[in-house]
Write a structure and sequence with these properties.
Number of helices of chain B: 8
Number of domains of chain B: 1
Order of helices and strands of chain B: HHHHHHHH
Distance between the termini of chain A: 12 Å
Number of strands of chain B: 0
Distance between the termini of chain B: 26 Å
Oligomer: heterodimer
Helix content of chain B: 55-70%
CATH topology of chain B: Four Helix Bundle (Hemerythrin (Met), subunit A)
Helix content of chain A: 55-70%
Largest sheet of chain A: 2 strands, antiparallel
Largest sheet of chain B: none
CATH architecture of chain B: Up-down Bundle
Number of helices of chain A: 14
Strand content of chain A: under 5%
Radius of gyration of chain B: 22 Å
Shape of chain A: globular
């Protein structure tokens, strides 16, 4: 802990960031609908993301209905099953997690935490949301077109993605999917420029890069990754749209379909895989880095202890971000690549474990001897820690070529990535919502309901995904709507599948409690006051709660890093970042 | 994907170089107060919009680099038949270069207030066919107008190029080489079009409100954007000419053999 030093001659440096002229909305439409205020945009992003995420949650229940109780439901055919799987995956990864972490939390927290009045380009920020909204509309529209949405799997691999054997392949399904992705990327780029430039150029006086809360470091680095990685997906979608609509052969090899020679020829499906995973792997960290950042702040605040190894944490975030660009081909071990490439990518993949493990150790050491308050945000943070560790360990298995090849395309992979980039980030999102909801609405979420929500979700997720590793290890392939009478699959798999499904329904249903909590606390929640968690970061020091337009009356001056908790001699046990620290304490 | 990795190394290198100046080794838990912040807080001495444009250009660069990468990977498959570029692309190149030069001239003048064309060096003045007898405001607005005209001419020229190759039988779906030609030039033209819309606004401002404070920054951003897109255009032409292919590679192979 740091003793407070007094600086009698403290000089206030001149403002380096000009006072921005904010757009002051006057009508309801410009205030709440076409709003240029990052906080409103954040809530818009979050509501749309959670809304479409609930659709994906329902889809996952339908998937589990089929897997747990095959042949019982007439409305689930092989085609619809593939459509459910595809849309579930794509929505969860792109439209929920990416949008919620960067569009939702990024928009809300960046200006507040760096001490800015708003994002640097508010108008572009507004466009960003509305283009995202349009992308979601296009995505949802694909459920209602003839032939339904695409069922190509979330990776959309050609050639099958645009052939008639795949649901939505020759209809509108795949076209709408690709269009929606392209829109999403355009919208995201607009938002992403805002997040990056606000962190670079919009910080208040005293807020050096090394005084940024780790939340901002995580979101900032993830945004940089996203800005560089999403173009790869854009390139892939453009080329596939050309293949599908205009008969080019970027990805399409020469094919005979139902005895008919198609006009395609020579294209390279592997090229698509490279482009897709060049986006796809950084995407994992686009989701994980904000989670890393947020969870660091939650742990530190709710354990009343400074984060252990702040510098290390920053370096690890940057290091993971840089490394994430040179591991993409570990998703393609079975594509027939040169063994030396496999070796290279396995090595880089395992190297990522170093900074990641470093972060896990630092979280644990932050908790060590901390004054741990088992609030709902803390419970979710702990849930994240355990889940991420578990998911990460199976990642070490899959990163090795020789282990990956037999496990490739089995339920083991499904269990792995659901643990590491499904459950783990969702845990952080939940924790973050319980943590920042009081600032966003002025009222606390119900702790009792929160704890029930946590335990059902946490235990339930383990009941779902732990057995799934076993199902994968015995060789059950993913993407099979039913297993039939396969000799190598023991009967226990069917029992386990039903068990997993029941657990999944319970967990799915528990989220209703969460949504109910969100809505009912708006009116009935306990009043929060301006800083219920006694946190140090700037968003808790705003004059109004929820923060008004422009965030602060006068822009705050930042005197210290964001982790001065349990400071000896401080009037409360923490010192806020804008607290100059009165008087020497020895 | 090698090209992408090289580009990425450039971007990451720049970021790391910048990070190095962010006192990443400081110990923030020991350093309180405001007066030990050496370099201030705002870390890049550029305006927000310029910084925004630079980051945006990095994204655009990434986009084109990925297409180039795709081009290289696809051209290794045997059905690839390189397409002769229509001669009009060379004229287009000169048009775009000229637009860039005129815009740069406007920027140089705008940076020096109350200076007119005589501020430009004689060589530069000869390059843009202008004498130094106009007042500053007048020359800025004319230079911007010429840029708009030249860029529009470039877009029309590109359209002519598509027509020409299509008439010669090199249609979009005929061969992947053609597909890449249309997609790459089309994407580039879209970016030019976007910039042109902004430049039209800037030009309108320069005619209606020559004293506007925004003018300099807008010209500055446009100039950067134009230079970048001209640079991309040059690389694009090199890539489509297949410069990694025949002569160079054969020569290397012969040397090695």
């Amino acid at each position: 802990m740091v003793d407070i030093e007094s600086k009698a001659h403290q000089t206030v440096p001149p403002a380096e960031v000009d006072e921005v002229e904010l757009y002051h909305a006057t009508s309801f439409w410009t205030k709440y609908v076409f709003s240029q205020d990052a906080k409103i945009i954040a809530i818009q992003y979050s509501c749309v993301a959670i809304g479409i995420g609930l659709v994906a949650l329902v889809l996952s229940s339908l998937i589990r209905l089929q897997l747990g109780f095959p042949d019982m439901f007439d409305f689930i055919t092989a085609e619809t099953y593939y459509q459910f799987v595809t849309m579930h995956g794509m929505i969860m990864v792109v439209y929920l997690l990416t949008a919620l972490f960067l569009g939702g939390f990024g928009n809300y927290l960046i200006p507040l935490m760096v001490g800015a009045r708003d994002m640097v380009f508010p108008y572009v920020n507004m466009l960003s949301f509305w283009i995202y909204f349009l992308a979601v509309i296009v995505l949802v529209a694909s459920f209602f077109v003839p032939g339904g949405p695409t069922g190509a799997g979330w990776t959309l691999y050609p050639p099958q993605a645009i052939l008639s054997g795949t649901p939505g392949g020759t209809g509108l399904g795949i076209i709408l999917m690709l269009l929606s992705l392209a829109l999403f990327i355009v919208g995201f780029t607009m938002g992403g420029l805002n997040y990056v430039i606000t962190v670079l150029q919009g910080r208040t006086r005293g807020m050096t890069m090394m005084r940024l809360p780790l939340t901002i470091w995580g979101i900032f680095t993830a945004t940089v990754l996203a800005l560089l990685a999403f173009p790869a997906l854009l390139v892939a979608t453009i080329m596939m749209l050309f293949d599908r609509l205009l008969g080019t052969s970027f990805f399409m090899p020469s094919l005979v379909e139902f005895g008919e020679q198609l006009s395609y020829g020579g294209g390279s499906p592997i090229l698509f895989q490279h482009l897709f995973w060049f986006f796809g792997h950084p995407e994992v960290y686009i989701v994980a880095l904000p989670a890393f950042g947020i969870v660091s702040d939650l742990i530190s605040t709710h354990a009343r202890k400074n984060i252990f190894g702040y510098r290390m944490m920053v370096w690890a975030i940057v290091g993971i971000g840089a490394l994430s660009f040179i591991v993409w081909a570990h998703h393609m071990y079975v594509s027939g690549m040169h063994p030396y490439f496999g070796f290279f990518f396995a090595t880089t993949t395992l190297i990522i474990a170093v900074p990641t493990a470093l972060k896990v150790y630092n979280w644990v050491l932050t908790l060590w001897n901390g004054n741990i308050h088992l609030t709902t945000p803390m419970l979710f943070s702990l849930g994240f820690l355990v889940t991420f560790l578990n998911g990460g360990l199976t990642g070490l298995f899959l990163g090795n070529v020789i282990v990956d090849i037999p496990l490739s395309d089995t339920m083991f992979v499904v269990a792995h990535f659901h643990m590491v980039m499904g459950v783990a980030p969702i845990m952080v999102i939940m924790g973050a919502i319980y943590h920042w909801y009081p600032k966003m609405t002025g009222r606390m979420l119900d702790e009792q309901m929160g704890k029930i929500h946590f335990w059902v979700t946490f235990v339930g997720s383990y009941l779902i995904f732990f057995p799934m590793h076993y199902v994968g290890l015995v060789g059950v392939p993913r993407r099979y709507p039913e297993l039939g009478d396969s000799a190598f699959i023991p009967e226990s798999v069917a029992t386990l599948n039903s068990f997993i499904s029941v657990a999944a329904f319970v967990v799915g249903f528990a989220q209703v409690l969460f949504i109910y909590n969100l809505i009912s606390s708006l009116r009935n929640g306990q009043l929060a006051g301006h800083n219920p968690w006694r946190a140090t970061t700037l968003e808790w020091q705003t004059p109004q709660t929820p923060p008004g337009h422009g965030n602060f009356d006068e822009l705050p001056l930042v005197y210290r890093w964001p982790y001065d908790y349990s400071v000896p001699g401080a009037p409360e046990d923490f010192l806020a970042q804008n607290d100059p620290g009165q008087g020497p304490v020895k | 994907m090698t090209v992408v990795l090289i580009f990425l190394m450039g971007v990451l290198g720049t970021s790391l170089w910048w990070l190095k100046h962010q006192s990443l080794t400081s110990k923030p838990w020991l350093e309180t107060g405001l007066d030990n912040i050496e370099n201030g807080t705002a870390s890049v001495g550029l305006s927000k919009s310029k910084m925004g444009l630079i980051v945006f250009l990095a994204v655009v660069g990434m986009l084109f680099t990925l297409f180039f990468s795709g081009h290289f990977m696809r051209q290794e498959i045997e059905d690839w038949r390189s397409m002769p570029l229509p001669p009009v692309v060379w004229i287009n190149g000169i048009l775009l270069l000229a637009a860039s030069i005129y815009l740069q001239a406007a920027l140089i003048i705008a940076r020096k207030q109350n200076r007119d064309l005589s501020y430009l060096s004689p060589i530069y003045r000869r390059l843009i066919f202008l004498r130094g007898d106009e007042s500053s405001d007048a020359s800025i607005k004319h230079l911007l107008l010429y840029t708009c005209v030249l860029t529009t001419a470039f877009l029309i020229g590109q359209f002519v190029a598509w027509k020409t190759v299509a008439n010669d039988g090199f249609v979009l779906s005929g061969n992947p080489a053609n597909s890449f030609f249309y997609v790459l030039t089309g994407l580039h033209a879209l970016h030019i079009l976007g910039g042109l819309i902004a430049l039209f606004q800037t030009t309108a401002i320069s005619w209606n409100y020559p004293e506007s404070e925004k003018l300099l920054s807008r010209i500055d951003l446009s100039a950067l954007y134009w230079h970048f897109l001209f640079f991309i255009w040059c690389i694009m032409i090199f890539v489509m000419l297949g410069w990694t292919y025949d002569p160079l590679i054969e020569l290397c192979q012969r040397v090695i053999a």
